[in-house]
Structure formats: structure tokens, C-alpha cells
Amino acid sequence: MLNIQNLTVSVDDKTILKGLTLDVPAGEVHAIMGPNGAGKSTLGYTLAGRSNYEVTAGSAALNGEDLLEKDVHERAAAGLYLSFQYPLEIPGVPALTFIRTALNAQRKLRGEDEMSAPEFLKTTREVAKSLKIDMDMLKRPLNVGFSGGEKKRMEVLQMALLKPKFLILDETDSGLDIDALKVVSEGVNALRAPDRGMLVITHYQRLLDHITPDRIHILVDGRIAHSGGPELAHELEARGYDEYLGEAA
Q1: How confident is the model at residue 249, as a pLDDT?
Q2: CATH assignment of 2-244?
């Protein structure tokens, strides 16, 4: 589903990703773990199309389509979704307006009919209830004054409504207490599907206790140094990354 080959990326003339290769099949959840500065967030931003992330070599495809040739909005319409570590606040734009505008913009690019306001509100109420989001919160400017947990639940709401084909979760557990982590994780797990893939970027094993991955990849110095099953997260928690620092290849 997601196929990355020999991806090399520079930011401000500094090479961060150094020939990274990764495959995530449809229906699977893969996790990326690694020390600070390894390139985890760079990978997510590059796939999403952030402008100052320069791809100097390699390829990235989603369902056989070249992601790197698409603009940011085209990648979103193709089904790619990036959940931010620190979701942006947008003063003056109600959350409901933001989400419906994004949803219908994507549908239009795919040649689909727009979702009507009644249908959108009905669907949103159902999803919001499962995520313990009050509808009054959705009338407020997006993420303005929201707690960390509220911001992350808002992102899961967007995922559930936009129904992307591939999710990239960049440190979704950041800033969450244990109760909020459970709610957010349940929302993410509800999105697992045979035709959807996920890439979970995290520092900590605790998130992977709630969102169990099929595979874990250790990213060190811009390359995948080691891959393994879900038990690898517990090994990292116990031993750290030191033994992999010289293995990146």
C-alpha cells in the first residue's frame, strides 16, 4: 500500500533521511520508533508534502500512485492523512466548518458529490459521541483553548469523517493523560480496516500497548536499523536504542 524506496530528504541543506526503504501493506499498522533526531517526523512531513522538505533521491507511492509528484491537497484527496504531534489552532474558523470544508474539497477532487449539511451533522454527532466530544466544542474555533486531549480527539474525529486510506500518526500520545490516551487509541483502533494502512510514529512503548502494531521499525540516523514484531517495543523500553546506533543501513 505504502511503498518507500531509498528515500533521501534534506531540510535546510541538511540531509535527514538517508536512503530509507519501507513497505506498509494494506490492513497493517506499522510503528516507527527511534531516538530524537532520527528523522521520524521528517518522514511524516515529507510524505504529506511539507514545502521545505526536499526529496533528493528515492520514491514514495501510495497504492501505486507517486506521492512525490502530487501537491499537498492532491495527496490528501488520494487518501493520505497526517496527524500532527501539536495540532494547529485556527482562530475564527469553527471546527465544524473546517472539517466539512476539508471533506467536501476532497470529495470534489475525487469527482464525488458533496456531503449535505444534514448528513454531515448526523454523521459527526455519531462519531463525536464515541470520542466523548461535546457538539458545543465543535462550534468553537478549531483547537483554540482546547486541552491536549481535546486536540487529539479532534484529530481522530477528522480521521473518522475524512476516511483516509493511509494514516500517519505523529506522536499521537504526546500530551495525553491515561484516560485521554485510552479514548484516542480506541478511536484509532476503530479505523483499522483491510483496505487501510497506518504508520504510527512514537517514542514510547505505552502507546503501542493500546494500538498494537503488526511491525515495528527502528529509525536511526535517517535509516531503518532494525525491524521486528510488536514485542520489540518492550525490548526498547528495557534496553534503549544504543545497540542499534551503529546498525543503520
Answers
A1: 42
A2: 3.40.50.300
